[in-house]
Predict the 3D structure of the following.
Amino acid sequence: MNQEINQAYPKAYWDIDNAAKESGFTMASDALTCSLLKTLAATKPGGKFLELGTGTGLSTSWLLDGMDEVSTLISIDNEARFLAIAQQFLGDDDRLGLICTDGADWFDQNKHLKFDYIFADTWHGKYLLLDEAIAMLNPGGLYIIDDMLPQPNWPDGHQEKAIKLIEALEQRTDLVLTKQCWATGIVIAVKKAA
Ligand SMILES: C[S@@+](CC[C@H](N)C(=O)[O-])C[C@H]1O[C@@H](n2cnc3c(N)ncnc32)[C@H](O)[C@@H]1O
């Protein structure tokens, strides 16, 4: 076995990848992570999905590929010009709701929502408002984060934040989790039944 991805990439993947590069967007999730996101998305038929940090929609395209036709995905980002790329290539998919908003505002206005799968790829729901994000998970719901191994673009002090985040997740009694030193460093956590 090797790490090649030999199953099909999402139809819109290369268009989004090209447009992202042209726009100067450099924060997209890597293909291995995205392949895992897709695989895990397929475990939640009829699921309610949340992506925090759409970027230009690369990870979004993989999530949609793993979801069945009755699942739904809300994906938020505060950068309209990146979201416009996601809208251009994924906007026809009725399962997807793209929302341009600040993460803090979105959490403030949507505390009542529940999800079966959260991919937290921005500040809110990961380094900020972690409790609020976990509270939104249904029992058995997945909480997934990437970029937990040191990355070349990390600013000074980010390593300490990452260590604290892992500690906070590991101390929770309402989660079962596994850390994977693979791809950019992934944590997969599952919300336990109460
Ligand atoms: C790591 S990138 C997401 C990459 C995306 N998952 C992909 O694969 O292309 C993080 C995103 O968070 C967004 N972001 C940063 N601060 C935010 C905030 N306060 N509220 C909402 N989104 C924010 C950025 O615009 C950026 O697109």
User: Anything to note?
Assistant: DSSP finds seven helices and seven strands in the chain. The beta strands are 48-52, 72-77, 96-100, 115-120, 137-145, 175-180, 186-191. Residues 27-29, 53, 55-56, 58-59, 76-79, 82, 102-103, 121-124 surround S-adenosylmethionine (CB under 6 Å).
